[in-house]
Structure formats: C-alpha cells, structure tokens
Amino acid sequence: xxxxxxxxxxxxxxxxxxxxxxxxxxxxxxxxxxxxxxxxxxxxxxxxxxxxxxxxxxxxxxxxxxxxxxxxxxxxxxxxxxxxxxxxxxxxxx
Length: 94
Known about the structure:
This protein has 94 residues and is of the alpha+beta class. It has three helices and three strands; from the N terminus they run βαβαβα. The protein has a domain at 17-79. It has helices at 18-30, 48-53, 65-78, and strands at 9-15, 36-39, 56-61. Strands 1-3-2 form a three-stranded antiparallel β-sheet. α1 crosses α3. It is globular and about 35 Å long.
C-alpha cells in the first residue's frame, strides 16, 4: 500500500508565462519529477486572470518542492525578464 505522503501534492510556485511553463515541464520530465501545471487561463474572461496572477502554477509532491523551486530559479536566472527592462534600452536605429 502506498503511503499518504506520496500523494501530498501542493502548489509550489506561480509560473510567469508559457515559455517558462514549457521549459519547466521539459526539465521536470527529464529529471523524472512528478508535477502538474495548472493554467490560470479562463476562456470566459479571455485570459484576464493571467494578466493579474501570472500564467499559472506548478503543483507537485511536497517532498520535491525544493528541487522544483531550484530548477525554476535556474530557468529564471538563465532567461532575461522583458518586464524588468526599460523600453528605451534598445536602440533600433542602424
């Protein structure tokens, strides 16, 4: 019989966008870490909640929380955040 802890699934983190979700899923699958992504998209509100709360969330076993957060932190360090940049930082003139 499986122990109850094996099914202790919790919300681990909010995912910022679809690209981050795809990268995270790919890496978690590669490492064999069970998880579930839940999108906040709601067709009735045309994605309004994603603008307010983020793309969605990752859920997984409590026992794997630190591993998932570490992988997510690595992704966020490697991918620049466009919203942190000043639009005037990019000069498009030749």
